[in-house]
Model the fold of this input.
Amino acid sequence: MEKAAVLYTGKAKQMFATDDPDVLWVEYMDQATALNGKKKVQIAGKGALNRQISSLLFEELNAAGLPTHYLQTIDDHTMLVKKCAMIPLEAVIRNFASGSFERKFQVAHLRPLVPAVHEFFYKSDALDDPFINDEQAIALGFATRETLTAIHALSDRVNTYLLERFAQIGIDLVDFKLEFGRLADGTLVLADELSPDNMRLVDQESGNSLDKDVFRQDRGPLTPVYAQVLSRLQADAAASR
Ligand SMILES: Nc1ncnc2c1ncn2[C@@H]1O[C@H](COP(=O)(O)OP(=O)(O)OP(=O)(O)O)[C@@H](O)[C@H]1O
Ligand SMILES: [Mg+2]
Done:
């Protein structure tokens, strides 16, 4: 399969059409952004690491029977995915307090949250991705009640899988962001990416961040940290085969 026209150039990925109208060609770029794009730099190797971590986790979720858009890997920074009509919401799942949640409620950093907290944000660069509740999303026509319920259930299943998967390699999955879409036949699937760009990961032993907070907070080079996450996931995947 070959790539055709560029459909979208985002902050982290470039999406291309292919000769199959149901398949997208996704290239993970060597670009890091924070503060909604206000901070932007090129980081060699980041795209390939995020592609590898995403491929590994999407493959595992598919194998576990969780529906994702992932089809196959093409090369270091490229994968094929099923084209979706995207739901314009970011679903954030929090297992431990951090970031905006910690600031909003003035609670202890990494306080455990039971049950896991689900939040939606409306995907809009112009509005800075504002928080949106269920009725706001329904009233504004972004999703139906049924879709929100299905997203909630699928998010919980993804969270259960990933929380356990990272715990096995000594990492706390603090929080993460998911995006969902619908295939042409209406099936709801997990889309976008699964990488440390969209997760907070904390090493259980050292307490160190193993995610984009390293970049957001200028705490040193990012690629060795992402490479460590990948190699820990790979080592564990190999050990359990
Ligand atoms: N399977 C899919 N089908 C169609 N679009 C997808 C699919 N998976 C992800 N996308 C969309 O493709 C884009 C990926 O690019 P990227 O993540 O770089 O965007 P971004 O800069 O984060 O901007 P934004 O996510 O706000 O559009 C996102 O808009 C994402 O919602
Ligand atoms: Mg994105």
Notes: The CA atoms of residues 196 and 211 lie 5 Å apart. Helices lie at 46-63, 99-105, 134-139, 145-168, 213-216, 223-239.
